[in-house]
């Protein structure tokens, strides 16, 4: 197992991302949030966009999982070989890719993309939507699998919180590479529960780093 993946074992990974048009959509801001997360005990950071990856990598000492989102439909998480190579060049220790079976914009298959990136020394995280995605990703040689896209394709319905059923199935069926939980972990209790299922690490984003959404939760509660 690659050392950078070993460093994430039993760690909290904090996802530091802001959406287009938001006030916090700035590399320096994301780097400051990442530094604060590290100071609070985070063992890894996940972030998107080349400027953010570069700024965060220059600020923290924990492993950085980088991705590049382009568009908002189809394959948009590090959708092409070029996007992945750019994430590596920006400093990502691990590159996250959409690992569904949907067509990729550059015409390469997922298998071709993984083969080329591994030949160039990349450590790869598979963002999956279902168990079939995770099995295929393992067989293709991904270093990590995650249910990041569960509920965001037609493969599975979106759950209110983490997709515990899928997480448990992934841990049970994929024992030779780490399963990292990502997706709708909003409370410490949910983080504890997914950890008890045997995941390698837990990613938390919105509940830590997205004040706009956190504020809306409180506003909605007060209006009910």
- Please tally the helical runs, counting DSSP H or I stretches of 4 or more residues: 10
Beta strands, count: 8
CATH superfamily: Aldolase class I
The portion of residues assigned to helices is 40-55%
Q: In percent, how much strand structure appears in the residues? A: 5-15%
Major sheet attributes:
8 strands, parallel
Keywords: Carbohydrate metabolism, Isomerase
Family: Belongs to the NanE family.
Catalytic activity: an N-acyl-D-glucosamine 6-phosphate = an N-acyl-D-mannosamine 6-phosphate
Pathway: Amino-sugar metabolism; N-acetylneuraminate degradation; D-fructose 6-phosphate from N-acetylneuraminate: step 3/5
Describe this protein's structure:
41% of the residues lie in helices and 14% in strands. By secondary structure, it is an alpha/beta fold. It has one domain (3-223): TIM Barrel (Alpha-Beta Barrel), CATH 3.20.20.70. An eight-stranded parallel sheet has the order 6-5-4-3-2-1-8-7. Helix 2 crosses helix 3. The longest helix is centred in the first third of the chain and has 13 residues, at 27-39. The radius of gyration is 16 Å and the shape is globular.
Descriptive terms for the model:
224 residues, 10 helices, NanE, isomerase, Aldolase_TIM, Putative N-acetylmannosamine-6-phosphate 2-epimerase, EC 5.1.3.9
